[in-house]
Design brief:
alpha/beta, 9 helices, about 25% helix, Amidinotransferase, transferase activity, transferase, arginine deiminase activity
């Protein structure tokens, strides 16, 4: 008796059981951040272009600059900052093709938040900055950085209102630049990739982002302007073993952007020059300080931290 060959029905494709994070490096690239202090490996920046040229008193008011900016001086300062990064082995990637009517586009930190599984693309709060994120998305495509969330609907969120404490903990601030709808979207996405504790905190009148009054300076050390830090937030952080370093020179914090620094590696920071009192506080806590001259760029009310978006950091082991 001849047996009929049995035909196997079905589409015969079987799903991979690997997680996104297991495959990310091979399929997308080596992009990762779960810390503000792990060794910095790669950053995203925008060298000021045509958008800062031809400023007038009228445009200064519209875009909230302190004064008319000198384009060439601003670019030299920006180049000096990127030179520091490269000297320390940090890859610098530039966002190009930015709109020429967006002079704040140099402040890259606001436009994204890097996570262990890709970037959250911001939606700026003010209309004069909306659209900057499109050029960031284009750069992500070129680099192979996955976008795990784009803030949408009625939400708005700027990346400087989120701060990593460790792989399981993120501070998330709400205020004039991040509303509840935006924060909710960010929180939901972070929880989906393993963040278990979201510390919500208000961003007070007088600040627009977390880096106006707090910034991680070492693995378990947080520099703070104490009069803007909510007590409940401070208590939660101290209970987690975070040492709060109080920086109190108001002139340096508000006009010199003393807390607007970047950690190159645990215990080593790059900060704006011209803040001697704050520098002395950091050094008294065994923090190595590298200063950069940013007097022209400061006219845009931003400094080192504002201009630098993380693409890759080593994880900071506590």
């Amino acid at each position: 008796m001849r047996r009929e060959k049995v035909k196997v029905q079905g589409e015969r494709w079987f799903p991979s059981e690997k997680s996104f994070s297991d495959e990310m490096r091979d399929l997308w690239g080596n992009w990762y951040c779960d810390s503000e202090t792990g060794k910095l490996r790669a950053v995203l920046m925008h060298r000021p272009g045509r958008e800062i040229e031809g400023m007038t008193a009228e445009t200064v008011e519209k875009y909230r600059f302190r004064g008319v900016i000198d384009p060439e001086k601003a670019r030299r300062e920006h180049d000096k900052l990127t030179e520091v990064y490269r000297d320390k082995g940090v890859e610098v990637h530039y966002v190009e093709n930015q709109r020429i009517d967006r002079p704040n586009a140099m402040f890259m930190r606001d436009l994204m938040l890097m996570t262990p599984e890709g970037a959250i693309l911001s939606r700026p709060a003010v209309s004069s900055r909306r659209g900057e994120e499109k050029a960031v998305a284009e750069k992500f495509i070129k680099l192979g950085v996955p976008v795990i969330k784009t803030i949408n609907g009625e939400g708005f969120f700027e990346g400087a209102n989120a701060m990593w404490i460790d792989r399981e903990t993120v501070i998330l601030g709400t205020g004039s630049r991040t509303n509840e709808a935006g924060a909710h979207q960010v929180e939901r996405e972070l929880r989906s990739i393993g963040v278990t504790e979201i510390i919500r905190t208000p961003v007070p009148y007088g600040s627009i982002h977390l880096d106006g009054f707090m910034n991680m300076v070492d693995k378990r050390k947080l520099a703070v302007f104490p009069w803007h830090l909510a007590y409940d937030t401070a208590e939660l952080l101290m209970n987690k073993g975070i040492e709060l370093i109080e920086v109190t020179n108001i002139e340096e914090i508000k006009n010199g952007m003393a807390l607007n620094f970047i950690v190159l590696e645990p215990g080593k920071i790059v900060m704006p020059a011209g803040c001697p009192d704050s520098k002395a506080v950091f050094e008294s806590h065994q923090i190595e300080v590298i200063e950069v001259e940013l007097s022209e760029l400061l006219k845009g009310w931003g400094a080192v931290h504002c201009m630098t978006a993380f693409l890759r950091r080593d994880t900071a082991i506590s």
